[in-house]
Amino acid sequence: MEYEIVIGLEIHSELDTKSKIFCGCSTAFGGEENTQTCPVCLGLPGVLPVMNKKVVEYAVKAGIATNCTIARFSKMDRKNYFYPDLPKAYQISQFDLPICEHGTVEINVDGVKKNIGITRIHMEEDAGKLIHAAGGTLADNNRCGVPLIEIVTEPDMRSAAEARALAEKIKTILEYTEVSDCKMQEGSLRFDVNLSVRKPGEPFGTRTEMKNLNSFRALERAVEVESKRQIFEIERGNPIIQQTRKWDDDKGESYALRSKEEAHDYRYFPDPDLVPVVLTEEYIQNIKGSMPILPWVRKVRYMEDYNLSEYDADILVSSRETAEFFEGTVAVCKDAKTAANWLMGDIAATLNEKGQTMADVTFTPAQLGEMIGLINDKTISSSIAKQVLQEMFATGKDPKVIVEEKNLAQMSDTSELKGMVLDVMKANPQSVEDLKNGKEKAIGFLVGQIMRQTKGKANPQMVNELIRELIDQV
To answer: What is the pTM (predicted TM-score) of this model?
Structure first.
């Protein structure tokens, strides 16, 4: 029996502010436990919170970038629940009047474009962190009061691939607008998945929610496993229970935490200590005017100005750091396609192998552009350039310095190469005979032998020409 997966996401993103949402405590990651707290973020009696203006600005930026309507009037509410990592026993959030609503974000999966609805974006404070240790559980309240936005989507996604594409697109938007650093390993970006299954055309089924997924891989796997679990239960006549589940990425399975709460369970009411958030048209227009170039604008420019394919442009703009590195490289070498190939090929592969990002690259865009220039002017071959690149990763030195220090300049002296070519052809008579008989693959073998002897330093085009020139002499 065919089933359709119905997916909505709740994306929690820590905002890249220096201080917390309602007090002056630091938001820096990695501080010693319970050292970045004060009476306000701990909710001690008699304290009064004050809204951080930067939080409002970042929420509006995120709303503009996701095509939302920005509310001229919104308010903060108390969401009441008890948990050990929430000292106040309530979280300050937004309920019925969020700051942003009714947006859309376009995704592209295997060439098929689709608009995903954004229901709302609201501001709220983060809770603390529980540390489970031998003999008990400890509470670290440093994260209490760290500002968040929660981006809630419509249930418009129908596959794990679509859910991942939307999550990646939101991450890109937040990075471009500098709203969040999106460091998932530090908890700056987390995903909750609301998922149900149904037969096509039927009403939505009962949904479950999986909390705090912190990688795209975990998101994709969780969707696939939970959808299969629900189909398995339905096929056996068992009801799906509306519940919150925890995903265990190591085991590749989820397990029930508790029954799923509804809004009335939280007893929302307006926070009496905070005034409403009232925005003027001038304020919103000023933020719109300060918005950076967004990824889809860059993508069109790359395709039009640099004649790149849509595939290449998509990859380059998926990360602001990659896009800016690309533009800096092209400014030096004036060769967009080659710059794109190096960034998407050897550089991406090296970073993946090291578990790093573009922020960890030890050389500059100008140095990469200089290396491409050395290839284009035939100072080094493409194979030697791979060695130069790895040395640049290791040392951060200029490519010209590396080429000089390691004597990697390409051999382009005809007289020097001619003797080598003749020796290789005499040592491989069968390949020479094959080439004479029109078997073009044979020349690749002969060129390869020369490149091996010269450790990649010979000019392959010149070697190719010499082989054809000297073939009748062998």
So the answer is: 0.81
